[in-house]
Amino acid sequence: MESTLQLHNDLFPKVMPAGAFYAVSSSSPSASRKLLANILRADVNAKLTEERLKQWAETDDIHTALSLLYRLQRLEFLYGEAQPSSQIVKVTSDLFEDILGQLSDSHRALLVDQDGFYLANVGFNHETAEEVANLASEATRLSEKNSLLIKNNLNIYNTAVGICDPAGQSELTFFPLYIRDTKNILVTAGLPLLNSEAFVTLVRGLYLLDGEDIKLTNK
User: Fold this and answer.
1) What global pTM score does this model have?
2) DSSP3 helix / strand / coil % (the chain, rounded to 5)
3) pLDDT confidence of 54, banded at 50, 70, 90?
4) pLDDT digits (tens, 9 = 90+) for 62-74
5) What distance in Å separates the CA atoms of residue 165 and residue 57, rounded to the nearest whole number?
6) Most CB within 10 Å of its CB: which of 46, 79, 140, 210?
7) Helix axis angle, 31-40 relative to 62-74, nearest 10°?
8) Within 10 A of 30 (CB to CB), how many other CB atoms are there?
């Protein structure tokens, strides 16, 4: 049966924080992650057309692409807006640090590469940042090593690793962020504030970076 879904003209795709988090929270491929990732790495001024949608969904079937778009919209992972409001961050350490400060209620956060070296830091002194970055790398590596136990036996599908107080409140959290074959780790001290436009901007910046080095700048 032919799909009755139609694409609304003259709208810009807007990925929500939940959609950005889903796109990068796992290295497991899926059609949904593929579409979200391609939108996140695209020009923020690109309007949503049928041709672009098929390109982003990596399919020649417009009905498949529309069904996938509709599913993500129902999940509130994205929506269409009349004017683009998303931002692209320049991949420099100081501008990443401006964003990192908005992702924790204590304004302390790190962006760490998969080898345990921090790329951007806000709120930690240099020596502490180095040690925490190494801890983040080891903790996420341990979680990945035991992923079958965590997912298949315990039915836990989150990839973040946290240190919590007795009330269960996070004091230090490590969020692995998977961009194609590259893994970065977002470290937040205190309560994470990922349900924000700042997190979407961070993810867009990482897709723009996509395996290259962050340009270090003097403050």
Assistant:
1) 0.89
2) 40, 20, 40
3) very high
4) 999 999 999 999 9
5) 42
6) 140
7) 80
8) 12
